[in-house]
Amino acid sequence: MATVLCYEGRLSLYCFLGGMASLLVFYGAQAFLHEESIWTKVALSVGYYISLNVIIRIRYNPRDYQIAVRAAFLGTVLSAGIVVFLYAQEQYKSFGIYATLMALFHYTEYLGIAICNPKTLSPDSFILNHSIHYGLAAAASWIEYFVESYYFPEMKTYKLVWVAGVLLCLAGESLRKVAMITASKNFSHIVQFERHNEHELVTHGVYGWTRHPSYVGWFYWSIGTQITLANPVCFVIYAIASWKFFHDRILMEEITLLNFFGEEYIQYQERVPSGLPFIRGFRHDPDCEDQTSFHTDKRNETDDDDDAADNNERIVLEIAKADVDRRRSIASGGLEHSRNRRYSGTYDNCDDQDASSLV
């Protein structure tokens, strides 16, 4: 883990706090200007945010600007969420909490990578542009929230409901961030198809409870946001969609981990569950010819790092290609990155094996 926050991490932190300063502008208008109108204070805060963006645009080069503007935006959203919670009508207060949780989650994703694995850091580490599916899901939850708030405002006023959602979000995010810190340089937002010298199998800490603690945390954080909003429809949709996404993601990731660590990872799978309900991950079946050859190839790899990396990627891509030939690939809406090839789908490498036996 990096002992000193890297330049990009410090830049994001300064700009995030700068965005949060819009809250000081909001309250300063009342304390120093004796302004009581809520809309005047909001207008002053918006003016501050626009000015901050202009300063950022002038001050930083294009690369740093992409980091700074995102961090400032998230800091402002967090402040706006606090204002909504404190001043909005009762049925809209939970949306303020939701906005605060969203801003905190996305910013700490970037900060966590800056602390743990700064070599993989990029503006995409905020995961604001996670995928089209992610954006559509968020928009759907907002639409449901405001439609229900208009027609059934009492639905959004049950404090026990959104308090339960907040607690679930905080628990999920805490687990995810602890997982990031525990994995340290082994953690990345992108599934790695090549093993590097510094890669090691992490089995201690929260990884001794679940093989995929960061996914477990994200899963429960995701459905917790919909409990916070008291969105019954999106709660069901988020639960199903998130489960499907992590089901496919874990299958893909565990094939690469079996390539990287072989028997060591098989033993780890036997000791520790995936952590998500009804998801077993990719399991080695010695009676399956394809999987047997898969592990034989792994044991016969040379010690040359470049050859091993090429062989790992070749095996993963061959398995993915064979699976595509047998079933329609599943677009799970995961992260995309120009430097990494990714595949989302189920990995069923035995012709006579039903897919349900792998989950």
UniProtKB/TrEMBL annotation:
Q: Name one GO cellular component term.
A: endoplasmic reticulum membrane
What is catalysed by this protein?
[protein]-C-terminal S-[(2E,6E)-farnesyl]-L-cysteine + S-adenosyl-L-methionine = [protein]-C-terminal S-[(2E,6E)-farnesyl]-L-cysteine methyl ester + S-adenosyl-L-homocysteine
Recorded topology in the membrane: Multi-pass membrane protein
Q: Does this entry carry the keyword Ribosomal protein?
A: no
Q: Which GO terms describe its molecular function?
A: protein C-terminal S-isoprenylcysteine carboxyl O-methyltransferase activity
Enzyme Commission number(s) of this protein: 2.1.1.100
Broadest EC class assigned to this enzyme:
transferase
| InterPro entries recorded | ICMT_MeTrfase, PPMT_MeTrfase
Q: Which UniProt keywords apply?
A: Endoplasmic reticulum, Membrane, Methyltransferase, S-adenosyl-L-methionine, Transferase, Transmembrane, Transmembrane helix
Q: Which family does it belong to?
A: Belongs to the class VI-like SAM-binding methyltransferase superfamily. Isoprenylcysteine carboxyl methyltransferase family.
Name the PANTHER family on file.
Answer: PROTEIN-S ISOPRENYLCYSTEINE O-METHYLTRANSFERASE, PROTEIN-S-ISOPRENYLCYSTEINE O-METHYLTRANSFERASE
**What is this protein's function?**
Catalyzes the post-translational methylation of isoprenylated C-terminal cysteine residues.
What is the designated name of this protein?
Answer: Protein-S-isoprenylcysteine O-methyltransferase
Q: Which organism is it from?
A: Anopheles stephensi (Indo-Pakistan malaria mosquito)
